[in-house]
Amino acid sequence: MRDQIADLRVALRNLTRNRRRTLTALFIVAVGVISMVLAEGFIQWVFWAMREGTIKFQSGHVQVVRPDYFSKGAANPFAYLLPKDSEILKSLESTPGIKLVAPRIKVTGLISHGETTVAFLAEGVVPAKEAELSKGGLAITKGRNLSGPNAHEVILGNGLARNLGVGPGDTVALLANASGGGINAIEAKVAGVFTSTNQAYDNSALRLPIAQAQSLLRVTGAHVWLVLLDETEQTDTILAQFRARFPENKNHLEFVPWYAHADFYNKTVALFSQQINVLRLIIGLIIVLSISNMLIMNVMERTGEIGTLLAIGLKRQKILQMFATEGALLGIAGGLTGITLGYALAHLISSIGIPMPPPPGMERGFTGEIRVTASLLISAFLIASITTLLAGLYPAWKASRQQIVNALRHNI
């Protein structure tokens, strides 16, 4: 232990010989780490925002449906209805870690106002639960949200309201195919207009209280129960519990995690993850080339010293270890400095916000942040330390292979 401490002290003293060069090397490593923390932190925030948006607006953490609903339900939706009053539903709601369970029923048909009639895609919802479930994913831009479970009212997507030429207070008629055959219709007032994260959805979507949707379709029950958890990280654990408690073949229920049908999210994560790996590679190469160049210059300036050390009996392995330790110290110091400054900058930028324009297919922009996690900081630090250590191996090897006579000539 004493020998190792002594080696570290020697390496630190050698690094302080040329302070300007050492500070430059530390600056390069720290800037690389800061760039990695900020860039990858922003991408991680995008992943998090997309994930939470998908969960809260579309699917919940777990979807409870009839088996084969997603593959065959579009052709015959009335054959895959869940019961309105179910002991299983009550059991799910009372499970620890569950925030709420929100039934939804899908409705398609025609909506009319005056002489204008267009197709719509609707969801019958429980307003009180949807206020919590869709928080952050659905924004009311005009009027208000649904007021109660039995209110004769709807909220329309911004594009659908624009196509119909209606606003809050107007009356619309909804027509749909009923479960027993034939067509049924109801009238409802427009309570408000909303925008979501998907412009195409807003052009045809509306929401209405689930009781009104059931009346329109002449059915009871719902197509899906959306389960919202306290923590997204508990999804797989809760999913396993549900499947163990309620076997599919016995209860005729299927439990589907949110990521199973989040195709856009999954592909986006795969694409951006590849870009993050390329960024890591570029930053690693910059660090390797910069530190390697600095350490080679260090070896050249200390050639005479190396010859003297070899002449008095110091082993070549010890010379190799000495220069490699200097490179490792540069990486550790630069990495710690980088993650400290990167963490502080990330919080500062997040507190201010990053204004972003509307992405393709969306009507409203958003304010971005930088999400720094422990795994991100550890990854950035390890990349800085490992690449700097690798950068120091060649200069260290070159120093250890010096010929004693040729090296001593530099002292003359």
The separation of the N and C termini measures 37 Å
Radius of gyration: 32 Å
Strands of the biggest beta sheet: in what spatial order? Answer: 2-3-8-5-7-6
Overall geometry comes to elongated
Q: Hey, roughly how much beta strand do the residues contain?
A: 15-25%
Mean pLDDT: 84
Share of helix among residues? 40-55%
Number of strands: 12
Tell me the structural class.
Answer: alpha+beta
Instruction: Please count the helical segments.
Output: 15
Largest sheet descriptor: 6 strands, mixed, barrel
Number of domains: 2
Order of helix and strand elements from N to C terminus: HHEHHEEHEEHEEHEHEHHEHHHEEHH
Question: What ranges have pLDDT less than 50 throughout 5 or more consecutive residues?
Answer: none
Tell me what you see in this structure:
Helix 2 (19-59) packs antiparallel against helix 11 (263-301). The chain is an alpha+beta fold. It contains 15 helices and twelve strands. The chain folds into two domains: 2-54 and 265-411, no CATH class; 67-252, no CATH class. The mean pLDDT is 84. It is 54% helix and 20% strand. The strands form two sheets. The chain has a six-stranded mixed barrel with strand order 2-3-8-5-7-6, surrounded by four helices. A two-stranded antiparallel ribbon has the order 11-12.
Can you give me a brief rundown of this structure?
The two termini are 37 Å apart. It is built from 15 helices and twelve strands.
Strand and helix map with partners:
Elements lengths: L1 H14 L3 H41 L2 E4 L3 H4 L14 H7 L4 E16 L2 E10 L1 H7 L5 E5 L9 E5 H7 L6 E7 L5 E13 L3 H4 L2 E5 H8 L6 E6 L5 H11 L2 H4 L2 E4 L5 H39 L1 H9 L4 H37 L1 E3 L9 E3 L5 H27 L3 H5 L4
Parallel strand pairs: 3-8, 5-7
Antiparallel strand pairs: 1-9, 1-10, 2-3, 2-6, 2-9, 4-7, 5-8, 6-7, 11-12
Helix pairs in contact: 1-13, 2-11, 2-13, 2-14, 11-14, 13-14
